Amino acid sequence: MPAMTVKSLSDQLSSYCSPDQRFIPVLNLVLPRLYAMGYWRDLAYDFRITTSNGYFALPQDAESIMAANVDKSPQNLWSQWHDYSIGGIPDTYSAYGMFGVVDDGIHSTKEALDSTKGYTLSVKAVTGNLPSDGIIQIKYTLLNGTITSLKEDFSLTNTNGSLSLKAFGNGNQINAVSEIRFDGIPTNIEIYAVESGKTVDDKLVLAEGRGDQIFRYRRYRTRTPSNVTQEIFLLLKRAFVPIMDESDIVYLGNVNAIKSGILATTAEDNADIERANYHWQVCKQLLEDEKDAYRGGARQTMRVDPYSGNGSPFNMY
């Protein structure tokens, strides 16, 4: 089946949960394991991004890159240790020209701040106004080297929900952010930094999201000539995003596989490991069968020619 909403899944599967369980928390246990089992149908999607600073970050709903195309040229993907073992870390943030796209690991912000410059922080609503509930906590370093933090409680500062934009940190100049934490943020908001002397048009987006989370972004580095904007097309594998309400989308729409996952989780809670393993195996087989049917005739076949296309040797006997 195609992607479904949590409500449509709940109508079909909530009866398989134990009486003392709520459906959304159960899904938040089952779905991450299903996502991690393989590259299932509708867990891959295209993404386009431009960069001129030698790196880019994956969106929060993406786990990894399956294929990358930079300026209409396919690129190899390299792991995080690649620069360390081959050529050392380059002086600039971009990768060496000989490399393609290099994994740069996990970072606390989506875009990097220049440690030699000062920035001011602000938060804005992605759509509408800022929420009237929830807490933001940020740990950052001032330009003078002092490490400090701030806490913004919207239930105190935006009680009527009328604000759409708010400045942070009393206008202090910062040059690094080590942690951004959301607690109970109900709607999507964006935290960004603006370099001293520049306008909001030149902002650096540090984090965007909702819910309860500590932000971590996976970055990749790519060779970027100076003052040149690169256009990057990516084939990404979806990451599981925790479900918050019944209107959220579940891209893994195999109802029977999710049902088996729920039954497996219930068996684990009852210490019935043998039954749990059986349900997980059924679940994976259902997803494999679905992927096989979805692939159709587009199947890779491996042909081995030990004679390199020169035909078989003449049999003298």
Question: How many structural domains?
Answer: 3
Provide the low-confidence segments as ranges.
Answer: none
Shape: globular
CATH architecture of the largest domain: Sandwich
List the helices and strands in order.
Answer: EHHEEEEEHEEEEHEEEEEEHH
In total, how many beta strands?
16
- Main sheet properties: 6 strands, antiparallel
Tally of helical runs:
6
As a percent range, the share of strand residues is 25-35%
Distance between the terminal alpha carbons, to the nearest Å? 59 Å
Briefly note the CATH topology name of the largest domain: Lipoxygenase-1
The percent of residues in helical segments reads 10-25%
Rg: 24 Å
Q: Report the CATH C-level class of the largest domain.
A: Mainly Beta
Tell me the structural class. Answer: alpha+beta
